[in-house]
Write a structure and sequence with these properties.
Length: 314
């Protein structure tokens, strides 16, 4: 593999618009690289960038060519995305996700935590696959992970890309968490949106197995935005549907007109305004007036409040 200088590489990448998030994070990334190098740490592996026009994964100073996913793998990936959006219960969706990912990624155990309702810097409500213990408290106490976990950015990384294998094995966390469970390697997916931490998934591999591949990171990268959308929605609205009204109940209770009823159903189905205008053959201004009338009758001001009040399914 060719060795590149991070400063010159990042600058070139930024100028060519090939990577994302470089404009805001360039100085932070370079300073982090210099700090790690000055302290004798690894000089690569701090941040991942997916090059959108190629299948190259860039890890500080090194390039890795990703394998091309086959038709079956893309089919499985699309099916996972479909289930992310259509599985009715949130915890069931998380468990189904972990189970389905086993087809694409080799791992022995996994856990999926979300941010606590009233403190996003705490982990809560784990869904676990082939593991029993809850390691939220131990994980929150890791100084090395807190900066990444609560940075407000979605990141996917192998633990060995941040800390050398020898240093990891010497930590209390490895001795008290990994070793008793016969794990050695981990792959983590931090999920965030709009600078808010939403959740984290950790995949574990047993002692004796090789490390996770960059192909595994590529697969998770395809899912992170979909998961961020669903986790943000869950964090905002929760799953308490008991007090919500169905569209039919809202129409009857608030005396919505037939046209308002139709528009409300379309809004709750997730249709964009432009699509609604096209299907109903009305202008954007006319649609806006109908939506404002719906809000006025329901006593709300925006679409967020609408989704808090009305069930998406009858």
């Amino acid at each position: 593999m060719n060795r590149l200088k991070p400063e010159s590489f990042l600058a070139k990448t930024y100028q060519n618009h090939l990577a994302f998030s470089l404009k805001n994070n360039y100085n932070e990334i370079v300073n982090k690289y210099k700090e790690r190098k000055a302290n004798g740490g690894a000089s690569y592996g701090c941040v991942f960038f997916l090059i959108r026009r190629t299948n190259v994964r860039i890890i500080f100073g090194r390039t890795y060519t990703m394998k091309n996913l086959g038709t079956n793998e893309w089919t499985i990936l699309n099916n996972i995305i479909y289930k992310i959006y259509t599985t009715e219960h949130f915890d069931e969706m998380r468990l189904v996700l972990l189970e389905e990912l086993r087809v694409l990624i080799d791992f022995d155990s996994a856990d999926f935590y979300v941010a606590a309702e009233h403190d996003e810097k705490k982990l809560a409500h784990p869904v676990k696959l082939d593991m029993e213990c809850d390691f939220a408290q131990e994980y929150e106490q890791l100084d090395a992970s807190r900066g990444i976990l609560f940075s407000g950015k979605s990141l996917i990384y192998r633990e060995t890309d941040l800390v050398s294998d020898e240093a990891r094995m010497a930590t209390d966390y490895y001795q008290h968490v990994f070793k008793p469970n016969n794990w050695h390697y981990s792959l983590q997916m931090v999920i965030a949106k709009d600078h808010h931490f939403l959740g984290v998934i950790t995949f574990y591999r047993s002692i004796g197995k090789e490390n996770f591949h960059y192909d595994d990171i590529f697969i998770l990268d395809m899912l992170k935005n979909h998961l961020a959308f669903q986790l943000e929605k869950h964090h905002m609205f929760g799953e308490d549907e008991q007090e919500k009204l169905t569209v039919s109940q809202a129409v009857e209770k608030y005396n919505l007109t037939r046209r308002e009823s139709t528009i409300l159903r379309m809004l709750m189905s997730g249709r964009e305004n432009a699509v609604i205008c096209e299907e109903l053959v009305i202008s954007a201004n006319t649609l806006k007036k109908h939506i404002l009338n719906i809000y006025r009758k329901l006593g709300i001001r925006n679409r967020v409040q609408l989704f808090k009040m009305i069930k998406e399914r009858e």
